[in-house]
Design brief:
The complex is a heterodimer.
Chain A: H1 5-21, E1 28-34, E2 43-50, E3 58-63, H2 69-86, E4 97-103, E5 106-111, E6 116-118, H3 131-152, E7 154-155, H4 166-176, H5 181-200, E8 203-207, E9 216-219, E10 225-227, E11 234-236, H6 240-253, H7 260-273, H8 278-286, H9 297-316, H10 321-332
Antiparallel strand pairs in A: 1-2, 2-3, 3-5, 4-5, 6-9, 7-8, 8-11, 9-10
Chain B: E1 34-36, H1 42-51, E2 54-55, H2 61-67, E3 73-76, H3 89-102, E4 108-114, H4 132-141, E5 147-153, E6 161-164, H5 167-177, H6 182-195, E7 206-212
Parallel strand pairs in B: 1-2, 1-3, 3-4
Antiparallel strand pairs in B: 4-7, 5-6, 5-7
Classes of the chains: A alpha+beta, B alpha/beta.
Chain lengths: 340, 213
């Protein structure tokens, strides 16, 4: 009898629990959560339960398509790096990576479970429409991000230069979307600005690459924010992607479920509304980067839009419906005025 | 559509209407040995193609020959099709028995089905709903051996949650799904306090049952 995938996963996870925790777990129960609806390029997540515990004892991530195993490899490598870089302090921010293995020819990443509440489904109106609540979360997210950045900060000299590869992303953006002459000019300016800024950096940090509230969990015991889904993490001298993506994703979460153009307009309008309190408070809570780069607001937000609009095409070789939204938001934010 | 959006590279498909995550309840390393029996739908066929799983048509005799001596799993992801099987219990047992004949002795049958009360389901019009107890009984009657039933929420097409029917997994899935609906969660907690967690599975919207030959 061929064992089922879940049976094989149970055996593997049981052996892991025995070696990691000295727990003899003859049988694990599972709850499988589908991430990203039916998107074949996403993962499914297995929460494993042992004994009489109400909280999962571990989490196993499995890609729907074998060829997307690279995402788990990236996540595993960066979690390992984080843990070896900052030691046990990592437990305050991220899951512990146990093993990246292959079960029935499929890559499987097994990590610790973070007990707490995911912020994915913060209510569109009651939360994102309330500047006071958004401000509080934004400041908290900024402080946590900064603390984590400080922990991974390392001199660039030791690791050689870090090419942000933004030119490639800008070129892909031009290839995928029709851009106006003004947009083309802004893309060139942005590319130049990013490259010039990178040269001045003396330090690099590990950026999460997908830093939005959906990848945050509020730790049950300490009430602190923790960060999951590190598959787009990378070392960078520029933290703009993480810092500004949080704001843009929040503004988009506040929009009605209408056309992508309309959502981009609404998000841009929301961001304008946050100029007075949310954004200054957020950036102030993050603080001035020390040795690495944080682009001015307009450049930083445009950089996020470009990266998000081309990510599916570059990473997976296909276009995602959200790509158009990011492209539209890029157009909307061209008129953004940075504060004096 | 605005002119600046017209030039996007045609999206290579994309997000299907079917997640096919029931695959993980089976041996997964050889999708070519899994067959799906369901009413034909273009989107379902395309999703299956993407994974390398074939549709199984029991009325096609060449298919019968081809699958002989093959180790594979047969999947009825949405239940027994109304068009092929009546609501009669004996008829359904007989259908399962005939399906068992197509599956290698080391293979599996996986059947998804809506709970009988789940009238809102979109697949209800084409497939028989059932209950875990009834399906388990029918599968036993048809000769299947070990039978395991999992809970499914919210539907069989894109099940966001598939979970073992034990207290921790059910509790976790319900809390995760309804964490932003405190009133509903409170109701569920009271409900489970009165009935006990062991009774909750009877009220889930859908299930997958996996049976060995």
């Amino acid at each position: 009898m061929l064992p089922t995938f879940v049976d094989v996963l149970s055996i593997s996870a049981g052996a892991l629990l025995e070696s990691e925790h000295g727990l003899l777990s003859s049988h694990l129960h599972w709850a499988m959560l589908a991430n990203g609806d039916a998107d074949f390029h996403d993962n499914v997540i297995f929460f494993g339960f042992s004994g009489g515990q109400t909280e999962p004892i571990l989490v196993a991530k499995v890609p729907r398509l074998i060829e997307n195993g690279w995402m788990l490899k990236t996540e595993y490598d960066h979690l390992i790096e984080l843990w070896s870089c900052i030691g046990e302090a990592a437990a305050q921010y991220v899951p512990k990576p146990y093993v990246l293995t292959t079960l029935q020819e499929r890559p499987v990443l097994i990590i610790s479970h973070l007990s707490g509440e995911s912020l994915t489904r913060l209510a569109r109106r009651s939360f994102w429409g309330n500047s006071r609540q958004v401000s509080a979360l934004a400041r908290e997210a900024a402080r946590s991000l900064r603390a984590l950045n400080n922990l991974t900060k390392a001199p660039v000299r030791e690791h050689g230069s870090l090419d942000p590869h933004f030119r490639k992303k800008a070129d892909k953006f031009r290839e995928l979307f029709q851009v106006t002459s003004e947009e083309d000019r802004v893309l060139s300016d942005l590319t130049r600005k990013i490259i010039e800024s990178a040269v001045t950096a003396t330090h690099r940090v590990l950026i999460q690459g997908d830093f939005w509230h959906g990848n945050m969990i509020r730790d049950e015991a300490r009430g602190k924010l923790m960060f999951v889904d590190w598959q787009f993490a990378r070392w960078s001298v520029d933290v703009s992607m993480d810092v500004y993506f949080f704001l843009l994703a929040g503004a988009l979460s506040a929009t009605e479920n209408t056309s992508v153009e309309q959502r981009a307009k609404e998000a841009s309008h929301r961001l304008q509304g946050w100029r007075a309190d949310v954004i200054p408070g957020y950036l102030s809570a993050y603080g001035k980067p020390d040795g690495y780069i944080l682009l001015p607001q307009k450049y930083g937000m445009l950089m996020c839009c470009v990266e998000k609009a081309v990510r599916s095409a570059l990473e997976f070789g296909y276009s995602h419906t959200d790509d158009l939204m990011w492209r539209s938001l890029f157009g909307e934010l061209l008129s953004w005025q940075d504060p004096e | 559509m605005q002119p600046h959006l017209q030039n996007i590279t045609p999206a290579q498909p994309r997000v299907f209407n079917y997640s096919l995550d029931w695959r993980f309840l089976l041996p997964i390393n050889d999708p070519g040995r899994i067959r799906v029996l369901a009413e034909e739908e273009t989107d379902l066929r395309e999703a299956l193609d993407q994974i390398g799983i074939d549709i199984f048509n029991p009325l096609s005799s060449p298919e019968f020959k081809q699958i002989e001596n093959n180790i594979y799993s047969l999947v009825l992801p949405f239940g027994l099709p109304l068009r092929w099987v009546s609501a009669n219990q004996a008829h359904q047992v007989e259908f399962f028995r005939s399906m068992r004949g197509f599956i290698d002795s080391s293979g599996y049958l996986l059947i998804g089905f809506n709970n009988s009360w789940n009238f809102r389901s979109t697949t209800q019009a084409k497939y028989h709903a059932s209950t875990p107890r009834r399906i388990a009984y029918q599968l036993h009657q048809a000769g299947f051996k070990a039978i395991k039933v999992c809970g499914v929420m919210p539907n069989l097409r894109v099940p966001e949650y598939i979970f073992d029917l034990n207290a921790q997994a059910i509790h976790f899935a319900l809390h995760h799904r309804f964490r932003r609906k405190p009133a509903l969660l409170k109701f569920l907690q009271r409900f489970s306090a009165i009935l006990g967690w062991t009774r909750i599975p009877a009220f889930l919207p859908a299930y997958f049952a996996v049976a060995t030959v």
